[in-house]
Amino acid sequence: MADDLRLEEIEQRIAIIRDNLRQLVEQAAGYSGAADEDRTADRIAEQEAQLEALLKEREALRR
């Protein structure tokens, strides 16, 4: 039961991060200037790292 709740929470967080990544990519397409691009690239990398960690955690729970 607890694993099911934890899995549901992870799924929700994955969906949120994927949406964040989509929005960041859209923003990056509209930016011009190195500072904005660097900041957006850093945010994208952070979100991708969080996503990867959640995907691994989800996989571990499914075993």
Shape: elongated
What is the domain total for the residues?
Answer: 1
Summing up helix and strand content along with how strands pair, one would put the structural category as mainly alpha
Q: Low-confidence parts, pLDDT < 50 over ≥5 residues?
A: none
- What's the β-strand tally? 0
Radius of gyration: 15 Å
Strand content: under 5%
Largest sheet features = none
Number of helices: 2
Helix percent reads over 70%
SSE order, one letter for each helix or strand: HH
How far is the N terminus from the C terminus?
A: 15 Å
The overall average pLDDT, rounded, is: 90
How do the helices and strands line up, and which of them pair or pack?
Elements: H1 2-30, H2 34-62
Helix pairs in contact: 1-2
Task: Report on the architecture of this protein.
- With 63 residues, the chain is an all-alpha fold.
- The protein has one domain.
- The protein is 92% helix and 0% strand.
- Helix 1 packs antiparallel against helix 2.
- The longest helix has 29 residues.
- It is elongated and about 50 Å long.
- The mean pLDDT is 90.
Which features characterize this protein?
single chain, mainly alpha, 2 helices
Task: Describe the structure concisely.
The protein has 2 helices and no strands. The protein is an all-alpha fold and 63 residues long.
